[in-house]
Amino acid sequence: MALSDARVLVLGANGTGKELVAHALHDQSRRAGGPFIEVNCAAIPSELIESELFGHEKGAFTSAIKQRKGKFEQADGGTLFLDEIGDMSLSAQAKVLRALQENRICRVGSDKDIEVNVRVVAATNKNLRHEIELGNFREDLYHRLSVIVVRVPTLKERAEDIPALTDYFIQKICAEYGMEQKKIEPKALDELCGMEWPGNIRELRNVVERLIILSDKTITLEDVNTYAVGTF
Q1: What is the DSSP letter of 28?
Q2: Closest CA to 31 of 70, 1, 5, 8
Q3: Is residue 97 included in any domain, yes or no?
Q4: What is the pLDDT of residues 13-62, one digit of tens each?
Q5: What is the pLDDT of residues 93-135, one digit of tens each?
Q6: Residue 2: which residues within 8 A CB-CB, separation 6 or more?
Q7: 146 and 187 in one domain?
Q8: Dist CA 43 CA 179 (whole Å)
Q9: What SS3 state is found at 161?
Q10: Distance CA 21, CA 27 (A)
Q11: In what residue span(s) does the Sigma-54 factor interaction domain sit (predicted)?
Q12: Neighbouring residues of 157: CB distance < 8 A, sequence distance ≥ 6
């Protein structure tokens, strides 16, 4: 899957790690040496999404004081991750569809097409088939994006991954803080494995970070019971 240029649609609830899947697909692909550009479609106002994705020419609108490349151009030769694509406006969906069909984009305020070589990975927490029925999402775009569909289960459904994820977060967070690597007691890890995790991987990361900050050199069962259990 990673070695192909096929488009991938990643489905899963909030916090399940859809962006980690997108990063892994890029890192293991032939495009790993190219850029990985992420766009949170839900965080960009609908009136700005087209400029964000496709760029604009100077003077294209009031605040366009200079030419700007969009995310498609920035991702040329690499991967473009369209997170929360289910929140994208229909007008922007139409232009994304054209870009996927023709491998070309047009900046806002320009009539010149620009060729782009981009692998698109999209993600959403919405049921896109239901959104299609409601008229909120284009069916043709759905089929363009869903060459391969990856469903990411909740953390509760894959509790066997919690030890590896906890170890990964401990190493990563300690490195970010410039701290000596901490250890975690087996009983403490067992307690984490038995928790519900409604916030999924995002919640686990936050709890691990809290434990690293508030515990001594080794994270104990008492630390977990004090700083993690019942905090959500």
Answers
A1: T
A2: 5
A3: yes
A4: 999 999 999 999 999 999 999 999 999 999 998 888 888 999 888 877 77
A5: 999 999 999 999 988 888 899 999 999 999 999 999 999 999 9
A6: 24, 25, 28, 29
A7: no
A8: 33
A9: helix
A10: 10
A11: 1-213
A12: none
Which pair of structure tokens corresponds to residue 193?
């494995």
Q: What is the DSSP letter of 75?
A: T
**Mean pLDDT, the chain, as a whole number?**
92
**Domain hosting residue 120, numbered range:** 8-151
User: Tokens 């019971």 label which residue?
Assistant: 225
State which of 151, 180, 209 marks the end of a domain.
151
Q: Is 34 exposed, middle or buried (0-12, 13-18, 19+ CB in 10 A)?
A: middle
Q: Are 218 and 179 in contact (CB under 8 A)?
A: no
Domain check: are 143 and 168 in the same one?
A: no
Residues 6 or more apart whose CB falls under 8 angstroms from that of 77 comprise 31, 34, 35, 117, 118
User: pLDDT tens, 146-194?
Assistant: 999 999 999 999 999 999 999 999 999 999 999 999 999 999 999 999 9
pLDDT band at 2; cut points 50, 70, 90: low
Helix (H, G, I), strand (E, B) or coil at 124: strand
Amino acid at 190: D
